[in-house]
């Protein structure tokens, strides 16, 4: 019954988390994940993005892909705000293992501990991994 | 002998396998996501520094630039471009790609 009521008001809003764990450029995962996040923006859902393991490299400032002949999609992360995707979480432990800090990242993020990120993941309705 | 590594040291054990097995006196070339191993402050830095005691370590500059880490390469790692990559392959009669 509750679902039907929500549907009348324009659909059920679920909490979606996209978990990004791969470095950009070496594999297609990071770019494909970003494409799906942009698609999800069209559905007015509660979207958050988590970056852990090599996924933190997706947000590294100063990427210049001219030399390897692939698209530099990193500026697109800065456009997410325009799609009302503003919940970006980065795992502190992953940054530290790679010698990175929040200042190395090209967007504003919330840095969380592993435990905090895990708790947030647990609150979601849907978790999608790239 | 030239050893080529293309996987991130954080996601894959090919760097460890290579450095465990490769005979000293040879060369290691880091390409694609393996270039993260050549960056300062990372958990892989000590492995690369240790490897440099017995081997020459190279990293492909366009792959470092693409990932935004060309400005934080560990001292002693030699950067090469694609022409340098070809030279390394041509100079070394034997080559192992740690895929």
Features:
heterodimer, A: 130 residues, alpha/beta, Hypothetical Protein Ychn, Chain: A, 29% helix, globular, B: 99 residues, five-stranded parallel β-sheet, 31% helix
Shape summary of chain B = globular
Estimate the strand proportion of chain B. Answer: 15-25%
Strand order of the largest sheet of chain B: 4-3-2-1-5
Major β-sheet annotation of chain A: 5 strands, parallel
Q: CATH homologous superfamily name of chain A?
A: DsrEFH-like
**Domains counted in the coordinates of chain A: how many?**
1
User: Roughly what fraction of the amino acids of chain A lie in strands?
Assistant: 15-25%
Low-confidence stretches of chain B: none
Number of helices, counting only DSSP H or I runs of 4 residues or more of chain B: 4
> Would you state the CATH class of chain B?
Alpha Beta
Topology as H/E string of chain B?
Answer: EHEHEHEHE
Helical percent range of chain A?
25-40%
End-to-end Cα distance of chain A: 34 Å
- Find the biggest chain interface: A-B, 25 and 26 residues
The overall pLDDT average of chain A reads: 93
Rg of chain B (C-alpha, Å)? 12 Å
What would the CATH topology of chain A be? Answer: Hypothetical Protein Ychn, Chain: A
